Amino acid sequence: MEETIRTILAEYGHLPVAMDKIRDEDDLYQVGMTSHASVNVMLALEDEFEIEFPETMLRRSTFESVAAIRNAVDDLIKASAN
Amino acid sequence: MSDGPTFRDELVAAGVLVPTACDGIYGRSSVYEDIVAGLEGLVNATAASEESASYQFPPVMPRSVLEQSGYLSSFPDMIGSVSIFRGDNADHKRLIEVAQSGGEWTSFLEAADVSLCPAVCHPLYPTLRGTLPEGGRRYDVSGWCFRREPSLDPARMQSFRQHDLVYVGDAERARQHRDRWLQLGADILGSLGLVVETVVANDPFFGRVGRILAENQRSETLKYEIVTPINSEENPTAIASANCHLDHFGEPFGIVTAAGEVAHSCCFGFGLDRITLALLRAHGLSPADWPAAARDRLWP
């Protein structure tokens, strides 16, 4: 899953730094991800993992790092499996 | 909730605003327009201290600007697209028949390549494609905007005027421009006797993704509004705003700084109609009786 998240970030995150230079905990907004880019990342994650972020998760913090995205996607996949 | 006449009722009764069949579309009296002209003069006099190119764009703009600026994706509920008739004689006959029978004649129309302008600085950016001079450039843009927000609140018009002071260039100067005009704007509005406050704000981005955009805009303090009470003390109305666009326009419109970086932009916008309404609210519907300080600033 992490590999897929990183691929999506590379394609839609418009980050000025290569993804292999970004650690799991790095703040993507500080690295240079714009809010419009974060929305495109969100939509790509929904398509890829066939999930839908509920309103409570439509927050800046949900997409602030690779680790945060992984946790959010993980939670949603688990929730949909139950 | 009071049962007395609303501010809108008072404006209409005094003939200052002339309502039409559509909420938020008004005619304006000469009393109203004299205030707008005074405000324009005051803003122009303040802006004259800095070198800027001054433009008026018409109320319509190329429709492509809506797409490239991101307005279509962020505010689809507010756009106005112009439709035109391009049928033949037979289509015309049917159009008239449908219209005369009270039917939906607009189904005979198709979208033109023009749309209504949603923000007065938007038609500017596509004209700037290419490399900016060293130090960037300032623009002074005034004109009509349309946003599809029908309302009985006179301060929420569908068709209204903005006067924007825009900087396009490097990120640091863009912020400085925004911050300087935010202060200048608050000073100007305060000098007219308005009780103003500067607050962090967000745009009303559409839909579920809009929540993220709005939260980001706030947390990065990209937008400030200068607010003053018009309809209520509790919910003051924004009468001016200062916006940091980052490279939101520089990127899609291919605007580059002299150093070769994607240009950043910022604008400070005076909401001319809302400021006029705020003044009428604060000082009364008869400008002849307004405080001398405000009168002297508007009509020196």
First-residue to last-residue Cα separation of chain A: 19 Å
Helix content of chain A: 55-70%
Which value, in Å, is the CA radius of gyration of chain A?
A: 12 Å
Percent of residues in β-strands of chain A: under 5%
Count the strands of chain A?
Answer: 0
Task: Note the beta-strand portion of chain B.
Answer: 25-35%
Judging from the principal axes of the Cα atoms, what is the shape of chain A?
A: globular
Topology at a glance:
The complex is a heterodimer of chains A (82) and B (300).
Chain A (H helix, E strand, L loop, with lengths): L1 H11 L15 H4 L3 H15 L16 H16 L1
Chain B lengths: L6 H7 L3 E3 L6 E3 L1 H18 L5 E4 L3 E3 H6 L2 H4 L6 E4 L4 H12 L9 E7 L13 E2 L5 E10 L12 E11 L1 H21 L5 E4 L6 H13 L3 E6 L8 E10 L8 E2 L7 E8 H12 L8 H7 L2
Parallel strand pairs in B: 3-8, 7-13
Antiparallel strand pairs in B: 1-2, 4-6, 5-6, 8-9, 9-14, 10-11, 11-12, 12-14
Helix pairs in contact in B: 2-8
How would you characterize this protein structure?
- The complex is a heterodimer of chains A (about 80) and B (about 300).
- By secondary structure, chain A is mostly helical.
- Helix content of chain A is about 55%, strand content about 0%.
- Chain A has helices spanning about 1-10, 30, 35-50, 65-80.
- In chain A, helix 1 (about 1-10) crosses helix 3.
- Chain B is α+β, with helices and mostly antiparallel strands and about 300 residues long.
- Chain B is about 35% helix and about 25% strand.
- Chain B contains 9 helices and 14 strands.
- Chain B has helices spanning about 5-15, 30-45, 65-70, 70-75, 90-100, 170-190, 205-220, 270-285, 290-300, and strands at about 15-20, 25-30, 55, 60, 80-85, 110-115, 130, 135-145, 160-170, 195-200, 225-230, 235-245, 255, 265-270.
- A 7-stranded mixed sheet of chain B has the order 3-8-9-14-12-11-10. Chain B has a 3-stranded antiparallel sheet with strand order 4-6-5. A two-stranded antiparallel sheet of chain B has the order 1-2.
- Chain B is globular.
- The two termini of chain B are about 40 Å apart.
- The interface between A and B is medium-sized, with 14 and 13 residues.
